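Hi U.,

Before I forget, here's the chain from the pilot set. I'm dumping it here mostly so it's searchable later in email.
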Amino acid sequence: MEKPEKRTKSKTMLIVGIVLLLVSLICSFVTHKSYLQEIKQPYAYSLTALFVAVMITVRGAYKAFIGVHPSQEADVKQLAQAGLLAALCYIGFAVFKIDIPVGTEKTAFHFGNVFCVLGALLLGGYWGGLAGAIGMTIADLTTAYVTSAPKTFLLKLMIGLVVGFVAHKLFHISREHTVKYITGATIAASICGMVFNVIADPLVGYFYKTYLLDIPQDIAKTFAKINAMTTLVNAVVAVIAATVFYLALRPALKKAGLFTEKEV
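Structure:
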């Protein structure tokens, strides 16, 4: 009888996360005053740091109290793939987008979600979502969407987690299956992630702009309605393109030995 695989535990990430959380909370309170004075960048940066700190703290708490299997630790190949997908997410939003001005704010048709979903299909929810979150957050911070960066980080990470859970925990698409099964499972996982985004993006955006960015409610409502339309179009494109890319890459990755069972 095989012995159960041991979990390794570490409190280092938890400590780092707590420190970053405290620092980013202080920075958010301090820079909120500068935001009210129309100096938006510092506040957006501190909110983004706060979201990152929360993620690190949660991950650190999981590792400290529950632990992870050695097979779940990231290796060099996985990190390289995540970095590549983060770069593609950045390009998909920063380069391939059509801006739609809405008063003083903007929304856009873009291809960033395509690679966020693809990352979750290829790498699992955590690393795929993290690649999308980092890539598209950097795109926000380096373009006119700087105030949306914190919201982007949270939502893209959640897209990855949803797609990864459905694809790898429910359908186990990394295992051997028929082409029909893989195609159906890939489409289902992509749709679940995009349905979440279509609902969450306008809703979270409304509360984010109203209560964190102090935008009047009527303007926030108008933006949410227009954002819902662009988000729906982006979702349809993401489901189709991510499915096509995944089905095309799957055989090549298997042949190269880069295709293994993924953990969410």
